[in-house]
Amino acid sequence: MTAEWIRWPANVVARFGGEPLAFGGDYNPEQWDESVWREDVRLMREAGVNLVTVGVFAWSTLQPAPGRWNFGWLDRVLDLLHANDIAVDLATATASPPPWLTTRHPEVLPVDRHGRTMSQGGRQAWSPSSRVFREHSLALVEKLAARYGEHPALALWHVSNELGGHNSRCYGEASAVAFQAWLRERYQDSLDDLNAAWTTAAWSQTYSAWEEIQPPRLTFTDSNPTQMLDFDRFSSDQLREQLRAEIAVLRRITPDVPITTNMVLFDAGKNMDYSSWAADLDLIASDHYLRPTPDAHVELSFSADRARGLSKGDPWLLMETATGATSWRSVNPAKSPGQLRRDVFSHVARGADGICFFQWRAARAGAERFHSAMLPHAGAGSRKFREVAALGADLRSCAGVLGARVVADCALLFSEESWWAAERESHPHNGLSYAESALGWYRSLWKAGVTVDVVPPSADLSGYRLIVVPMLYLVSDRDAAAVAAAADAGATVIVTYFSGIVDPLDRVRLGGYPGAFRELLGVRVEEFAPMTEADSVEIDGVTGPARVSTWHEEIDLTDAVAAARYVGGDFAGAPAITRAARGAGEAWYVGVELDAGARARLLEAIAQRGPEGELEIVTRRSAGDEYVFLINHGDTETTVPGTGTDLLDGSVHEGKITVPAGGVRVVASAR
Ligand code: GLA
What we know:
alpha/beta, globular, Rossmann fold, nine-stranded parallel sheet, Immunoglobulin-like, binds alpha-D-galactopyranose
């Protein structure tokens, strides 16, 4: 991934007095009469927009029939944007195939696990394994790259859109054939190795020919877990192959234009193994939409920290978010006063060097006609548009932040592969949520004022003082060893229950739980004891008195010491939380599901506490400057120690910084 993340046209740099934080959004002019476009760019300039994404869903407009192309409108759009000092993130427009393609080639259409073929008429109606789709999509990419590769407005390529957002899993015939080929390569053409890896002797599933192997389509009972896991891996790889194929065309024709694709990092986006895609991209771009739940700003922070983790700490781009309500949730609340500004600055605080929205102008028709936008249905005289323009001004005042890296000394390990495997059926407790477990620990760290890098288990863990490993059910020997090495080197490691249980083939590690972490943690568990909703049990010790539910287990100490014990229940007196000194560090094991209060007390006990409550404080550092972001999500004014100048209002703070309720400050100081 290169550091130079957008090729800003000279006129845009000149207009903004240097490379700006990106500010803009999806722009779909093909959905409007050309007479609207001039008002668009006028208002974009008024709002301080400097980057727009064009053409995401434009395939059927660009290619109205096989062999017939219609680029004139796009020529005019790019010229108009450039003439108004607005750079373009040009989409490859392959996200949704035109009806003529899926009518002539219905085999392009994806098939769900039930064998139902998805129809044209929504979007992403294509199978990632379709060769026909691949051929037609690349023909489009070739045309766009050849025609616009030298356009002065072109700053960035935007491959497809949310690859896999809807079509991540296809169970059709094309996918079956591709899956068999993928498996042959993965198992070096050895059917014996595949049968062993999948333990197909269970339930009489042994394959005698590759052609017998199908995607894990609908079954009466639980499907083979390793077959499902390999199908998840295959499906993510198929999407990555589409990404790589489009990138190859773009690199060949426009080698100097950076390339990205927008990742689905809201609600922790599950279906793609993004850490295996990141190296193909010049820039990590994330989509995030606020949950309609309390503490939604904490999930936003998690998503932002995950984007930074995928970017290995480099700046990243928030490609899409909403200025207000979405339109795809069952209820789509508006944002509360000040929420948009807090959300945006939480992303910037956590490494976003650009903030873009879905979309510029609110649609009048189509499935997203009630989705919020930068320019709402009410027009430019609206409070929302004034808020958006004010945001543009705020971001312009923070341009110095560009490229500064977030300061974090805590890592939370997050693995899509383990997520796929941990939330399967046929588990000791089939109500566990990996994402919510990870988010729960993240939330406790957030409220303790700890800035967290959310990173894959394969990340470099050296330098972290705290490493949290929430429910890492599937882990490789290598990654487990890296966690142990970090503890030896001085880190405090916290591993939770149902971690280290299986190997990368979803086969249980024998000899006692928690398998891959047994030696590191100095414990051994012989039997899981998940709890029904009616069950709970008291523990006491490092957390103080606490009632735990959902999960507990009887922990035998090998060389760990008890840090909390069960007060009652079947395991009265036995350890529930343990600590083991390891080299210069230590390894904690949490064999129970703690509530937020108990987690907070545990973190306090291991000296991880920071300012409590709802003041979010994140620091970004460049070579010469430090930027402290203070975002007050609470309803009371808060004062903390600090010195510097607030880039947002110019106020100077000597020794203390007061942040009004719901307010934001970005306090800069020389290092
Ligand atoms: C996703 C898609 C956009 C749009 C938004 C709506 O991010 O990429 O095309 O549908 O959701 O929130």
